[in-house]
């Protein structure tokens, strides 16, 4: 009798488990629209879909992803002793999905590394929140958003830092990018494969950057971007990550431009930088291009920021206040070997406006890097050497360089 009871229980378990799994397959259906949820303001490249949950009635989806960059650098300091810097450069946690209807999507991204959060000063907010935005997507072309996320700036900035070939963006991105802001976003996607097509992206935002609550005026920022694909769209959204990991069988080209006007900015770099005592109108122009073909990838960018009377004269001339106005350009070339080892070279040039030339040097930067892709951009090893040349207004100069190793992992 005992053996018979055990046998019955085993048969019940063997029947119950497949039946349960079958029931889950039937109830946890994938919505017809929203299977590949598109977050136009957060288009970073990810191999896989992270860890996700969907309710049985498909009214709610939560996707969890993380990303971590750990690096060690040897830095030659021209004004002091050389140093070894070792730290977690980026640690990000992201949640995305939809609520109620696949057309109503959301994205939350939090940062925890010191380099992301920054130093907390009196009267300022902690910068843990990078993105907190929702989008309404009535069809597969339109996306209407509200919240805090990246503005549609240059291509390298718009891409995730986890989708870069080198360990960081260029010096021009550091100075001229328009970063994140709180506002209203409207995007129209018309890119198609194998034919001339385009995307349009616009934003109306506060102009003060992320997590900023000290705006006491009605000044706003206006952003518009056009992306052209003369030979059709890249395969697998290849414009959203650097390097030709797809090995495009035919040439693919992106030509794009962004116009950004920040009316009455109060920070030295618009959405970033120090709070200054007087406001200025800032105009930012970004032009960028990308070419990929059979493992080769080339990208270039021009960035500028213009301001009338960028220098603010104060009672303390030893501590000048000024808006960073000027321009710069980047050239970046790479080739992906058959063993998924990539060789990358980048040249950047940056020129401040004559009004602030006594405060900021002209700058050139040369970078050579080697990246080993283990699991595309989700798991990679990166090594790079960078030299920077600064030339000051009195024609004096200095050179400094660093050697860096970085490991990137994420889902």
Keywords:
mainly beta, 16-stranded antiparallel β-barrel, two-stranded antiparallel ribbon
Q: What is this structure's SSE topology?
A:
Elements: H1 2-27, E1 51-54, E2 60-75, E3 83-99, E4 101-111, H2 114-117, E5 129-136, E6 142-150, H3 155-158, H4 171-176, E7 180-189, E8 197-205, E9 221-229, E10 252-267, E11 275-293, E12 296-307, E13 311-312, E14 321-322, E15 326-336, E16 341-352, E17 362-375, E18 379-391, E19 397-410
Antiparallel strand pairs: 1-2, 2-3, 2-19, 3-4, 4-5, 5-6, 6-7, 7-8, 8-9, 9-10, 10-11, 11-12, 12-15, 13-14, 15-16, 16-17, 17-18, 18-19
How would you concisely characterize the structure shown here?
The chain has 411 residues and is mostly beta strands. The chain is 10% helix and 51% strand.
Task: Describe the protein's architecture and organization.
With 411 residues, the chain is mainly β. The protein has a single domain (38-410), classed as Porin (Beta Barrel). The protein is 10% helix and 51% strand. The protein is built from four helices and 19 strands. The protein has helices at 2-27, 114-117, 155-158, 171-176, and strands spanning 51-54, 60-75, 83-99, 101-111, 129-136, 142-150, 180-189, 197-205, 221-229, 252-267, 275-293, 296-307, 311-312, 321-322, 326-336, 341-352, 362-375, 379-391, 397-410. The chain has a 16-stranded antiparallel barrel with strand order 2-3-4-5-6-7-8-9-10-11-12-15-16-17-18-19. It has a two-stranded antiparallel sheet with strand order 13-14. β1 (51-54) and β2 (60-75) form a beta hairpin. The radius of gyration is 24 Å and the shape is globular. Mean pLDDT is 87; it is low at 1-37 and 42-47.
